Amino acid sequence: MRFQVKLVMFDLDGTLLDTAPQIAEAANRMLVALGKPMLPQAQISTYIGEGVQNLIKRCLTGNPHDEPDAELFEKAQPLYHDFYANNATDSLPFSGVISALQQLKTHGFLLACVTNKPEKFTRPLLEKAGLADFFEIVVSGDTLPKKKPDPLPLLHICQKLGVLPAEAVLVGDSETDIQAGQAAGCFVVTVPYGYNQGRPIDKATVDATVQQFTEVVDLLELPALLKRG
Fold it and tell me: Is the pLDDT of residue 177 over 90?
């Protein structure tokens, strides 16, 4: 089955870019500065995807459900932001990302990036990785009053680009993406190599899954105008 869509939206962390190594490094430098023990990168990877504040809280407590001491959290935030600002742009695209985006752009699809990462990190990351020019619009975690899993960022993109949600697909790696896409009324496609809080994606909850990023291209019908040409 191929999806007849005009717009393809992409999550960033764990979908387009492998950001876990740099996030883990910054988080561990934060923990050391606070006199706390470092955490394995694999554990920190399970904390990615629901915004930087949740990431910091989880690193401080070692538990996705606990709240850290308020004073400690206030000290931790600027430390993490400073450390991550120094290494964020070292993250690299996953295999096949650039070639797939090039194909989608050539075929006439509208492309967008929607992430829960703050804009001050998102823009430099996309530019350094050579991805920024592919996207008509980029929505970060602090662009709007709400972020994923709320559907607002996806609906905002559709409205700005004049596309119905049913004419759009979101490609992501986590339950956060799945919830946002379904709430917005978009198709949802997931990649298997992302973070998703350390859990495998339940394939029964999405419209399609791919094993390689380049397979996204094969899931989509070419835009009608292009096919007529």
Answer: yes
